[in-house]
Amino acid sequence: MEVPCVAVDRTDGEQSRQALATAGVLDDDYQIVHEEGTLYIPVTDPTGVPAEFETTSRELPPRRTVQTPADILGYEPSLERLGEVVIVDEDDSERAHEIADAVMASDLPARSVLNRASKIKGELRVRDWEVLAETDNSDVDRSPTETVHREYGHEFLLDLDAVYFSPRLATERHRIVQQIQPGERVVDMFAGVGPFAIPAAAAGAEVVAVDLNETAIKYLRENARRNDVSERITAISGDIREVAADYSEWADRLIMNLPHSAGEFVETAVDLAGDDCVIHYYDIQHDSDPFGPGIETIRAAAEPAYEARIETEHVVRSYAPHEVNICLDVRLSRR
Ligand SMILES: C[S@@+](CC[C@H](N)C(=O)[O-])C[C@H]1O[C@@H](n2cnc3c(N)ncnc32)[C@H](O)[C@@H]1O
């Protein structure tokens, strides 16, 4: 059906939608449509449209209950959501902005849209971000990169600009947490904002969570408080190689999620291990032999003092062509 609407440049979409909503003329009964760089935004009363807009009329489909970015774009964009932050992964800047504008104009609850602007870098495993879009009518006073993410019943406040976090590991973290028994002593050697440590504590473990990134530990403490497990987590900002001396032979379980360089920390893991200790060792290797190098490194560090039994060889996800992110669950038993 032909309905009154305004025609605006795609890049002005979110700002225009908000201006029309403020003027009280945005028509929620019809969908916003994108055609060749122009957005057609339906209005209830063309005479009430602010003067800076060009009014026209157009065949617009009635609005379904929820309008997705794909409805606006005409194709399914690749998006990841972390709370109200939406992440696109686009090399083409124009396409990235087109997707961001569609996200903001859609019914997806989005406070900001970010694009990955670098690879994950350095010891702290943080990347740069480009803010493609952000709402200016949010009730919360947060930077566009800070968000609250929910995973398996726990909530995590984090700032992507300052800490590592990947929602893609949710299933893997759950696999580990399900193995934890109440009363276990767990050291999360590279804890980040706590996505292993907090559910582990919630499962009844006594957790020591360590990270070199002071900001990550600040968020981890806040997340422990939010999830009501502060009394079972000791959060330490520092290098695990230095912290380990205080927890020698203490751990029943070790989580080693630093896949590119976990091999350099296996001696530290053995120092932390109690008489019977399971290590969750993450690694990234060529798919021709994904488990061999890790097994060799662990055996070299642990034997002969411990027997090292490989309980699980698990591919977490494909990382790059011919490279896989894997996890070895290894039980060390003192001889
Ligand atoms: C891949 S991230 C994993 C974070 C968290 N486990 C998660 O799943 O989100 C690795 C973390 O190890 C930390 N890190 C790097 N070197 C470290 C060290 N020597 N001691 C303690 N933490 C370290 C980084 O700051 C980063 O937060």
State the order of secondary-structure elements, H for helix, E for strand: EHEEEHEEHEEEEHEHEHEHEHEHEE
User: Could you estimate the helical fraction of the residues in percent?
Assistant: 10-25%
State the shape. Answer: elongated
Number of helices: 9
Distinct bound molecules: S-adenosylmethionine
Uncertain residue ranges:
none
Q: What is the spatial order of strands in the main beta sheet?
A: 13-12-11-14-15-17-16
Mean pLDDT: 94
Radius of gyration: 25 Å
The strand count comes to: 17
For the biggest sheet, the summary is: 7 strands, mixed
Strand content: 25-35%
Question: What structural category do the secondary elements indicate?
Answer: alpha/beta
The CA-CA distance between the termini, in Å, is: 79 Å
Q: What oligomeric state do the depicted chains represent?
A: single chain
Keyphrases for this structure?
335 residues, alpha/beta, seven-stranded mixed sheet, 9 helices, 17 strands, elongated
Write a structural description.
The protein has 335 residues and is an alpha/beta fold. It is 23% helix and 34% strand. The strands form 4 sheets. A 7-stranded mixed β-sheet has the order 13-12-11-14-15-17-16. A 4-stranded antiparallel β-sheet has the order 2-3-1-4. α3 links the parallel β6 and β7. It is elongated and about 85 Å long. The mean pLDDT is 94. The protein binds S-adenosylmethionine.
